[in-house]
Amino acid sequence: MDYDWRAGLFLFVLVITLTWVTKLLAFKVPALARERVRNLEADKGKLALPKYPPVVKAGRWVGVVSNLAFFAAVAPFCVTLAPQPWWRIPLDIFAVLMIYDLFYYLMHRFLFHGQGYFRRMHALHHQARSPTHIDAYYVHPLETFMGLNLFLWLVPALALAWGPFHAVAIGLAYVIYVQLNIINHCDVDLPHFPFKTLNWITTKHATHHKSMHMGNYATITLLYDKMFGTLN
Question: Which residue range is the domain that position 127 belongs to?
């Protein structure tokens, strides 16, 4: 695979643009804007606690360094701007997210909820029994590194097997992955159409946070929890 800096730069700009546009449009919806205000108010109380700011800050630095390394040094080997059949982009998005979610499910269930050091490390995140937006970032920095890099390094691994992905596919997959990890932790009370699915997702992850034994280990979709009997 060649280093395609144009495709890598396009990917980086696309991710920033999609992230900004999706947030801008989402919070134009009054119901979502109200839920955002509720979460930010709860976040203020948590960030006033001395334990929150250093963990959040450390995790964000891990994210910045990991992402910069990926977008500058790895992604240009894995993405292309060459034309591809239209169906390849949605197929690649689906494949990347579902393969990632399988590996994350296994890591989350058997490593973070197993025994020993990684369970104790993950217990920091589980101090949030009623998670809100900020708890997506209240994660031990090593856990942040492991979860994020599982996704980032899956991309070159799959590219070695399948060939380079179109930059649009990886950009969309990345934004979906990041936003779902944040949304999972938000306190959402919208049990009516068209927000029922969003409400269900956040409720299931809130259940996961009630203890270390509540299941619901996947992060993109709960399909693997359904398949392996850990859906609660």
Answer: 23-66+91-150+173-228
Q: Could you tell me if residue 195 is left (phi over 0), alpha (psi between -120 and 50 degrees) or otherwise beta?
A: alpha
The pair of structure tokens assigned to 85 is 């059949």
Q: Please state, in angstroms and rounded to a whole number, the distance separating the CA atoms of residues 205 and 186.
A: 9
Widest CA span of the chain, in angstroms? 52
pLDDT tens by residue, 82-137: 999 999 999 999 999 999 999 999 999 999 999 999 999 999 999 999 999 999 99
Q: Degrees (nearest 5) of the Cα angle 113, 143, 197?
A: 70
State the pTM of this model: 0.96
Residue at 77 is within a domain: no
DSSP letters spanning 187-225: -----STTSHHHHHHHHHHHHHTT-TTS----SS-THHH
Amino acid at 140: H
Half-sphere exposure of 89 (CA within 13 A, CB side): 15
Looking up tokens 């104790």 gives 120
CA distance 220 to 109: 14
* Best CA proximity match to 152, nearest among 144, 140, 163: 144
pLDDT over 90, % of the chain: 100
The answer to the question of residue 205 being in a domain is yes
